[in-house]
């Protein structure tokens, strides 16, 4: 299958990064230093529900189908 190497449509980790970013941004005030940011990132990464991750994994077939249907163009993912 031919597609752009960095296609976010076929890269579910992009959705994981978005989820992680949203979770970290809920902390107030912002991190005081890089160490605190790292701690929060690790904490939130470990707190992402397993169901969210499984959904990303199980979406791969449909991602590929839609990417092919759109000739490698933009999809809803």
Terminal CA distance: 18 Å
Query: Count of helical segments?
Result: 4
Strand content: under 5%
Summarize the amount of helix as a percent range. 55-70%
Q: Provide mean pLDDT, rounded.
A: 86
Instruction: Kindly report the oligomeric state of this protein.
Output: single chain
**How many E-type strands?**
0
What is the element string, with H for helices and E for strands?
A: HHHH
Poorly predicted segments? none
Major β-sheet annotation: none
Class computed from helices, strands and strand pairing? mainly alpha
Shape designation: elongated
CA radius of gyration: 16 Å
GO molecular function: nucleic acid binding
InterPro entries: RNaseH_sf
Protein name: Tc1-like transposase DDE domain-containing protein
Helix and strand arrangement:
Layout: H1 13-25, H2 34-47, H3 50-58, H4 60-69
Helix pairs in contact: 1-2
Written description of the protein model:
This protein is mainly α. Helix content is 60%, strand content 0%. It has four helices and no strands. The mean pLDDT is 86.
In a few lines, what is going on in this structure?
By secondary structure, the chain is an all-alpha fold. The chain contains four helices and no strands.
């Amino acid at each position: 299958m031919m597609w752009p190497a960095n296609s976010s449509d076929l890269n579910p980790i992009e959705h994981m990064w978005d989820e992680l970013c949203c979770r970290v941004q809920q902390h107030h005030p912002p991190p005081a230093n890089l160490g605190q940011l790292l701690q929060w990132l690790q904490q939130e990464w470990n707190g992402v529900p397993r169901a969210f991750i499984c959904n990303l994994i199980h979406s791969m077939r449909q991602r590929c189908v839609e990417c092919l249907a759109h000739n490698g163009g933009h999809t809803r993912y």
